[in-house]
Amino acid sequence: MFKIAHSNYTTLALTLFFFCNGLFAQKPEILDVVTMSENSNVPIANIRRVAQDSKGFIWLGTQDGLFRFDSQNYTTYNTKTNGKHLIGGPDIKDIMPDTLSNVLWVITSYGGLNGIDINTGVCKIAKPQGKGTVFEDELLSKILLCGDSLIITSNKSVFIVKKRTMEVQRLPVGEEIETDNVIKYKNFLVLFSKNSGIFLYNLISKKIEKRISSRSGGMVEEVRFFDNLQLSNTTWLICTSAGVSTLSFSDNDILYIKEEALEKIPAIRKKAIYALCRGKDNMYWFTTGDAVYRATPDFSEILAIKRNKNERENSLKSIFSIYCDNNNNIWLGGIEGVLFCKNKKPPFSVFNQATEKNVSIKHAYYLYPENDSLLYACAETGLYNVGLNTGNISRMGKAEPYDYIFKDPYRRTLVSNNSGLFVKNNADLTAISEIYPEFLPLGIIRINSSAILNDSSLILGTENYKGVLIWNFITHQIIQLSSDSGIPKLKEDVTNQVVKLNNDSIAILSDSYFCIYNRKSSKITTLNLINSDAKRYSIFFDLCKFREYYYLAAYGMGVVVLNDKFEVIHEISTQNGLSNDGVYKLLPWKDSLLFITTNNGLNCYNPISKIIKRFYKSDGLHGNAFEETSGAIYSGTLFGGGSGGITIIHPENISSNTIAPLLYIRNLTIDFGNSVKYDTSDLVSRNFSIPSNALQTNIYFSAINYINPERTSFAYRIKEQSDDWISLGAQNFVTLIGLPPGTYHLQVKAANEDGVWSEPKELILEFLPKWYQTWWFYLLIVLTVAAILYALYRYRIAQIKKQHQIRKNIATDLHDDLGSTLNSVKVFTNLAISGVKQEESLQQIKENLNEATLGLRDMIWVLDDSLDTVDELVTRLKQFAIPVAAASNIEMKIQASYDVNSIKLTKEEKRNLFLICKEAINNSIKYSGATLINVDIKPGGKKIQIAISDNGKGFNAEEVKKGYGLKNMQYRAGQIKFKVALTSSPGKGTQVEIRTAG
């Protein structure tokens, strides 16, 4: 036995004694316990440690790696993940959040010490493990945070690690101590060894000062130390394989251990306590491996925890880690995964699993509470007996569909199924006509609703088109109201519900009509209810009087609110917050709340505030869908049923979640195409630059809401585009494609299931421009356009100058040639008039006029835009040269190769080439004495070249002085960037070659 502690701990010992004595004597505590890892796409099991970091994320240390959980998504850290999520080993032994350093410290089996940046989620292997390293081949077991140092224990040693420098010091413990746990007190370490007891190690003297053995009574017993909980600066509770012990230090730093007398409690004798924690409300939680318990702060009440779900296997077994998060919710880690316990009484209890094997309540059509502890359920698979206190469910009779169950005035149980209406006596069913002969003429009767009209009559609504039956059980008479009956007559035989309004009137609800039957007057009044859009309400399932109004369920249109005169006041629908317009049952509670079952969710309507609170399966219901007639009220308790079983509603336990989700922008990914992506995870960075070659950008969010993560919703806006928020629903990411270059402020917010919104988080995104979207490119474009415009301007000016020069040249030609010719005509005309050489003068006048005419034709041809090809130049030369040569008995040949005919010539080229050719031909005719002149035009560079040759007498080109004609030809050629070459020799003729100057 351990040494008995000082008497100050007698009170604690007695407390624990009574705690263990009453452990199994009280009714279990039913709480909402949800499996959080069942929807994960990665296997999460064998959980050793659970912790929460400063950002609110839950970290799970398992045998298969480390997982970060944001209430919806898991991030995996192990040896198989990519670089930033890679850790030294898969088998997590311990985790420790370090708020000051913003690091999560992790040790693994033979994987060394790992540090994970809480902001970025990036793992840095601070101290790897292996041969030659400081940890070598030791099995690390526990990590303890102590100021600026970490204390790490192993199966052989104890290490102190300086966080800043990562310097590691191995403590000389003197012997191998396989440490399960460690506590630091002042300058002491308390080392818990599973095979050697407890050691008190002095950090100053570097020596073990005290050892308390776990061997007692001559028996060698190996005691494991699983967990500890600090109660004060000097006291801890120690969870061991032999129960709970108290460890404390006295004022003079003497260590005391008290082992509790658990062997006196037969129920948990020798029971191991694997984990212990204390909630924010000072309630204690612990696990024995086969159950989880909660105790009050003074241990006066101890309750075993039971999951709020009716199953054959409903215990909390194989739980070895307990953790209380920042919002006082409890996390339970075990072999099967992680469980989340909402640390408050649940608003709903679910029953769906019968004690019989493979039998469950799949479709609860109708519910009938017999008393506080017994509920009958008519379902698709049979009639069930539900124990509300015990949770036991058993099927009564055959597995066949049942519609309805109720008690007649003689307390007989009447049930309706596909075969008709029966009187039930234990497991036996007797046709109702055998007990009440008045039903015999009606044949098979199926009932879906009933109401007591008065002391002698019952109203029955039928399921199989029999209308409504008014049964006088005193006189044994039945009045049938149907479309075939006399007066009064129903318009429709389908009946969904009959509701008593008063002793004389009942409401009859059907698919198409809402009728009121008055027993005294025997009249049926059909109400025509129309909404604000002039649409007629129909498919009525339920009616109730709540406060001063009637509430009518109209399937597909919501709930219609009527006054005492059955006039429509207003409508409750999805437009003002209802979860679904397919409304079934209306269940008022204490004149303050109205519960509304629908085809998709349960609604709680507050008539004062007009606020509707919606609930779904994620809130603890049997499912999202209810059945048409499945709802009941008994002594203030509400019941509803549907495809997934039965839900008991506890309105007094309903509360709003006032805690907004913890919102983070989790990571940003950029897709560049060709499977190239960029991914960054940083919870605190707010500025990102998006490269110009990005195809799309995705921003992912984490909204931590462990209470109801499935109903977390998101909204976003881009301030530069709109001030309105865009709802994303449950989608936790935004994809941005095709945004123009610029800076954008993306804002995101998240809401919990009760519509409590978080503060917006803002991300500043700078979308970088492509090279053709940059300012310098735009400037270059402007400069280029300006240069082009300037060039066009200069070109236009040059063209104008050229045209001006052409006009000037033409004017000069007109003045020089035509002017002088006309002047000659004038002179010869005067001579002819005066009679002097009259015949000769007239002949000269004729020649001058012909020359003037040819000059004008040449000018007109030059100015004609349609005659700008080489072919036209050839034609014009022929028109000029052939007649002139023929007059001098000279043969003229003008030819051009086929590939130059379509070449375009400018006006200046056309004019100057023609004049050069004309000058050369004239010279040959006048001076060469030739009999043949040949003009040959062929390609030359990008233009043409012209060779004009004759077979005349020729001359010595070196000796003959260049005359005005040759200079004029060269001048004209230079104007159009051509050149003229003259070749001649005596007796060999002359050749003038015109070609481009390039």
Mean pLDDT: 86
* Poorly predicted runs of 5 or more residues: 1-25, 215-220, 261-267
- Largest sheet at a glance? 8 strands, mixed
Total beta-strand segments: 70
The CATH superfamily of the largest domain turns out to be: YVTN repeat-like/Quinoprotein amine dehydrogenase
Helix content: 10-25%
Outline: elongated
Q: How many DSSP helices?
A: 7
Distance between the termini: 117 Å
CATH-defined fold name of the largest domain: Methylamine Dehydrogenase, Chain H
Taking strands numbered 1, 2, ... along the chain, how are they ordered across the largest sheet? 22-23-24-25-1-28-27-26
Can you describe this structure in just a few lines?
With 998 residues, this protein is of the alpha+beta class. It folds into four domains: 7-344, YVTN repeat-like/Quinoprotein amine dehydrogenase (Methylamine Dehydrogenase, Chain H, 7 Propeller), CATH 2.130.10.10; 396-618, 7 Propeller (Methylamine Dehydrogenase, Chain H), CATH 2.130.10; 662-773, Immunoglobulins (Immunoglobulin-like, Sandwich); 867-998, 2-Layer Sandwich (Heat Shock Protein 90).
Description of the molecule:
The structure is a single chain. This protein has 998 residues and is of the alpha+beta class. 36% of the residues are buried. The model is unreliable at 1-25, 215-220 and 261-267 (pLDDT under 50). Helices cover 15% and strands 41% of the residues. The protein contains seven helices and 70 strands. It has four domains: 7-344, YVTN repeat-like/Quinoprotein amine dehydrogenase (Methylamine Dehydrogenase, Chain H, 7 Propeller), CATH 2.130.10.10; 396-618, Methylamine Dehydrogenase, Chain H (7 Propeller), CATH 2.130.10.10; 662-773, Sandwich (Immunoglobulin-like); 867-998, Heat Shock Protein 90 (2-Layer Sandwich), CATH 3.30.565.10. It has an eight-stranded mixed beta sheet with strand order 22-23-24-25-1-28-27-26, with no helix packed on it. Strands 59-65-64-61-62 form a five-stranded mixed beta sheet, with no helix packed on it. Helix 6 links the parallel strand 66 and strand 67.
